[in-house]
Design brief:
By secondary structure, this protein is of the alpha/beta class. It contains 13 helices and eleven strands.
């Protein structure tokens, strides 16, 4: 076992017994929502996974340890510290471990730690991607590179609509990452089910998702699979409302010179303010929806 990895007793027992386990990120706790909503949401997502037949494994870096499975107390700790916790991508891991520091895991680092622990399915909100204007800034999320090399299935509500969705799909195609739409032919745009861009394949059951991932693993093909699960219609935001807020937020981020890892938290917070909090409510619902699908898919994968 990797000496830097600490797997909770519950998660390790489930893995040893071949039971379904679903990984969860911690950036949504420390950087995605205000306290105490962040902690309440994290615990609710864990319970949703349990209710759908799997064991949750919230992933984080605490005191220099890669944690696969956090306690409620550790989730509370991350939620209260908020932005004091480093938003940790692949490049941050060596330094955080050496300094025995804390880190909130992004899609990238959650995939890395999940793979180390032997967890194959991961539920998140939305992935990072190619930022608008990346043809000049080269601002492309490390999430896409991780999907190309780490064998974890990521269930999300599409790429965040603050991004360039067309270029994000092109990048994933170049990297050989299958993009599957759950019950849809269209890439969901996080807050809304529609983007106008097509996914690679439509898949309609958790069993089909599990079979596709099992085939990829059996063939020894590196990388993961991206499952895009549309936000339920009753929680979706009107496209014109959310797009107007995003355009305003992007313009302000450019004006203020915000870039790098600070871009996404700034844009999401600004969009929340511009929509009177509606975007946060939608965010919570889409994460719960993804947790349900991930748990059902992990249960099917455990049967194979």
């Amino acid at each position: 076992m990797n000496k830097y990895l600490s797997t909770s007793a519950e998660v390790q027992q489930a893995l040893n017994e071949g039971k379904p386990v679903v990984a969860l990120e911690s950036t949504i706790i420390s950087h995605g929502m205000p306290y105490p909503q962040n902690v309440e949401t994290a615990l609710k997502v864990e319970q949703t996974i349990r209710d759908n037949g799997a064991v949750p494994a919230t992933i984080a870096i605490i005191g220099g340890k890669l944690k696969a499975g956090c306690t409620p107390e550790e989730i509370e700790y991350l939620g209260k510290k908020g932005h004091e916790v480093t938003k940790a991508s692949r490049r941050d891991l060596p330094v955080l471990i050496a300094r025995k520091a804390d880190g909130a895991t992004t899609v990238t680092t959650t995939m890395i730690i999940a793979a180390m622990a032997g967890i194959k399915v991961f539920a998140t909100g939305g992935i990072g991607g190619v930022h608008r204007g990346a043809e000049t800034t080269m601002d492309i999320s490390a999430d896409l590179e991780e999907l190309a090399q780490t064998p974890v299935m990521v269930v999300c509500a599409g790429a965040k609509s603050i991004l360039d969705l067309g270029l994000t799909l092109e990048y994933l195609e170049t990297k050989g990452v299958p993009v599957l739409g759950y019950g849809t032919d269209e890439l969901p745009a996080f807050y809304t089910p529609h983007s106008g861009f097509k996914v690679d394949y439509r898949v309609d059951t958790p069993a089909e998702l599990a079979a596709a991932f099992k085939a990829k693993l059996d063939m020894g093909l590196k990388g993961g699979i991206l499952v895009t699960n549309p936000i339920p219609d009753e929680y979706a935001m009107p496209a014109d409302v959310i797009n107007k807020a995003i355009d305003e937020a992007v313009a302000e981020s450019v004006k203020l010179g915000i870039h790098g890892k600070e871009t996404t938290p700034f844009l999401l917070a600004k969009v929340k303010d511009l929509t009177g909090g509606d975007s946060l409510a939608s965010n919570i619902q889409l994460v719960l929806n993804n947790a349900r699908l991930a748990a059902k898919t992990a249960a099917e994968l455990a049967k194979q």
